[in-house]
Amino acid sequence: MKITDVLNGQLWKQMMVSGAKALEIKKHDVDALNVFPVPDGDTGTNMFLTIQSAARDAEKITGQSIGEVAAAASMGSLMGARGNSGVILSQLLRGIAKGLEGLDTANSLQIAQALQSGVDTAYKAVMKPVEGTILTVSKETARAALTRAKNGGSLLETLQEAQQQGFKSLAKTPEMLPVLKQAGVVDAGGQGFLVILGGWIAALSGEAEELDFVSGAESPPKAEIQEPESKQEFVQVENLDYPYCTEFLVKGKDLRVEQIKQDLSGRGDCLLVVGTPEVVKIHVHVKNPGKILDYAIQWGSLHQVQIHNMLEQNENMAHAMKEKALAADSEPLAEGQELKEFGVVAVAMGQGIADVFISLGVDEVVYGGQTMNPSTEDLAEAVRKVSARQVFILPNNGNIVMAARQVKDVVQDCQVHVIPSKSIPQGIAALLSFNSEGDADTNIKNMERGMSSVGSGEVTYAVRDSQYGDLTISQGDILGLIEDVIVTTGKLLFEVAQSTLEKMEWKTHDLVSIFYGEETKPEEVERLQDWLQEENPSIEVEVHPGRQPLYYYIFGVE
Fold this sequence. Notes:
The protein is α+β, with helices and mostly antiparallel strands. 47% of the residues lie in helices and 18% in strands. The chain is built from 22 helices and 17 strands. The strands form 4 sheets. The protein has a 6-stranded mixed sheet, sandwiched between helices. Strands 1-7-6-8-9 form a 5-stranded mixed sheet, with helices on both faces. A hairpin with a 2-residue loop joins strand 11 and strand 12. The chain is flat and about 75 Å long. The N and C termini lie far apart (66 Å).
């Protein structure tokens, strides 16, 4: 077949789908590149779910403009971003969309420039960029693409040259990051990016098979949003103040996203307005959809208009589940009742841990953590369910912090503050420092101070043989970690738990908190508790059934 030298929206859409399919096939291989031999290597899975969300939104665009399709893919990746790797990928796609903005078609040089725009956007999104990661690989890829395109290379030649340089850069990542060299792996994020790029090349060259998994496959598993027991039985859809879920695209020129947000605020709830000067996606729950459509048509043409009556008993089940996550099962405000000032959303990796957060006043708990990072959309949905003017998010995992920060870009109904907690103990310590009577700035300072005052440790198992520093690790070994760093290993759970606590210098603290996992036997917990009390009975020990997967223990000392 003839290989085109100009990309339009339909071809870019095919490339998005092909890139997602390529990573779907290779995601577990990318997962296996996890630096640490612990059971949370999910870089490939996170990137796949992110690019899959991008491809799904791209497929909804029926026009031929590459700028419109790229904008839709960017929006999809933003909402579907999971984990740090997924967030960085979404920023790459966001920058690419910016580079293709306003274009109906793009040649090799324009595509190369868009790739460079993606790299620039991704670097700006990361507070402390680290070389030897997906950032480096994408940077070298874009640089090679620009060089080849400026020398007259075709689209296919440009992307192939970019991929070749990307693999060379990927091979050098262990030299840039000693932790990669020690583990004997290349950077997982960089590998995932090159897999996606390979899918783009396959689609461009006509080698990709016909794929319809984006529209035909089941949706990826969503992080469950747990509602406190007192609210679960309250929900009655017949009491909805805004029963019509209205969702559509506006296409035009010089669309002002911020102005549209301001104009629509107060006309309904669950408002979402995102997009570009050419394409804007609007989602809102209203009493009268006609008024919203009459307003929107002043800006441009309307597309993909969907209006659902959430009061109908025979509503499509998939949409009903979507509305449940967005608003239908959240407790409506009584007439005249004001929003409270502050609310809190926390991420938890076990029912027992979730119960602790709820008992401490958390409004919404999102289930996730290792191996299943909640997406930006999952967190945004939880935030929308909180009846407060300002909402604090506690990610409680370093791999969720970036996705949490992106919630600010998609939620307009309230002010969002992210407390960058990287562990369950940090999240609890931050929450205990929260004062509902204080102001936001004071709470942020106190919560971050409280978070930094606690030490965190974990006990899990090795999923593969590995060498980490001076530690020789065999598959199945018990591992002890402090602040995500492996510090001890052994064959017996009790001994590794002892060693981990000793290295945390637990005897110099006033309180030891223990959350035991779903696979930890009660007698093991009792034995560890007895040892702590015998060693130093003056130190308070709190034991909670965290019921978390994968981790036998989570420790906190303060």
